Amino acid sequence: MNSLKNGWWSERCELWPGVCLSLEVDEVLHESKSQYQDILVLKTKNHGRALILDGIIQCTEADEFTYQEMIAFLPLCCHKSPKKVLVIGGGDGGVAREVAKHPYVESITQVEIDAEVLEVSKKYLPFMGKGLSHPKLTLHVADGFDFMAQHQEEFDVIITDSSDPVGPAVSLFQKEYFEMMRSALKPGGIVCSQSGTFYANIEQVTQTLNHCRSVFASAALAYVTVPTYPTGQIAFVLGSCDPEIKFDIPSISFTDDELEQMQLRYYSSDIHRAAFVLPRFAKKILSNE
Ligand code: SAM
Question: Ligand 1 centre from 157 Cα, in Å?
Fold first, then answer.
């Protein structure tokens, strides 16, 4: 269904029916079929390079920072001392790049199912792929669901930077996965998972939030704007076993100088607090379920 026609590539997917985003393309840099998915890298006219898996945009060079900073810094800054971090998915390297910036983080374990995505990102998307070579990172090529089942009370923060719930990522949106994440967390730990967009597919957001609510004592939804994602935004589900946690109040606030030094362009304490303020329609639907 996805197409490259007259110099424009269009993203069509049943998860967001009746709407699609198109990117004007200069060049196809890479196209392959891995064991798990179709991999495409485009050089676009106005949005830098773009990674596309199974016909769905994962990131573009122009706006990937918004997503990567928020999926990393929201849970890291909800935790008082995030030392050991687990990233599931994240094959482009952008989340590892951001997590490594947090001053308290000592080690990052990352589990990506598709070795080919890692290689393609290092070669064609070095602005993100550089995260995969960070000295704090230990990288495993494995299924994140299977990995989670084998780990107990190990991590302070678990970030699930998965593709959308099609193909190998389906299991990362199930209730059982949230139960396994709870077991893999140390006391006081936090999880954060991407959970789709509430304009195009509020059912998916609701289902993921409900899994999180049923497993954790506290759960919340936040979102970020990403112009090249379907409907321009994506939500994150956060969970913790601490019934008193206030997700919208960051436990650490960085000064403007510190944010500059860390090269954070989107995240700040103000954005952290604002990310949990939902539009009324979304709040109503999500609180009724
Ligand atoms: N920011 C992106 C988004 O929301 O569209 C996600 C980017 S990252 C490229 C997603 C990664 O999750 C892919 O590289 C994919 O191979 C990986 N992935 C999917 N299912 C997985 C699984 N079961 N275990 C580990 N990694 C998985």
Answer: 17
156 belongs to the catalytic site: no
Helices 280-288 and 202-215 sit at what angle, rounded to 10 degrees? 50
169 C-beta closer than 6 A to ligand 1: yes
196 lines ligand 1 (CB under 6 A): no
Nearest to 156 by CA among 99, 224, 219: 99
Q: Which CATH architecture has domain 3-60?
A: Roll (2.30)
Which entry of 54, 114, 156, 161 is annotated as an active-site residue?
161
In this predicted structure, what is the pLDDT of residue 201?
85
pTM over 0.80, yes/no? yes
Superfamily of domain 64-288: Vaccinia Virus protein VP39 (3.40.50.150)
- Whether residue 1 has pLDDT greater than 50: no
Does the predicted interface ipTM exceed a cut of 0.95?
yes
Q: Is 113 touching ligand 1 by the criterion CB < 6 Å?
A: yes
* Confidence tier at 79 by pLDDT (50, 70, 90): very high
Output the pLDDT for position 81.
97
Which 3 state secondary structure label does DSSP give 13? coil
